[in-house]
Amino acid sequence: MKTIQVVAAVIIKNKKILIARRKNSMCGNPGWEFPGGKVEQGETSQQCLVREIKEEFDVLIDVGNFIAESKLKIKNKIIHLAAYEAVVLSGIITPTEHEEIAFVIPDELLNYDLLPADVPIAKEIIRDCSENF
What we know:
With 133 residues, the chain is an alpha+beta fold. 20% of the residues lie in helices and 44% in strands. The longest helix has 14 residues, at 119-132. The termini are far apart.
């Protein structure tokens, strides 16, 4: 079974976290996610996040600590999602591939229809929010 390495940025601004809603996802359905993308060959997770967030939002980020990971089986693939803290260094967040964005407090994350791989990440953020936020 093929494993696809995917990374997500948990972009924190004013104690709120950026989530974005796609029209379609790897799962085939629309939903909210922590933005990011597939790691390309020869690329680190951090390099991937910087590239993907620049492409998707036209901002430069600094990638911080690893937060959590999840694995999700979809058809004949396993999606391995790793999430990292990130902060915007420059630019104004301008979505190019998402229909909508929102900055939410950690306790509100599960009020959104998150994509399945993002739900365990959100739960970990909520568990740790008193320490990190």
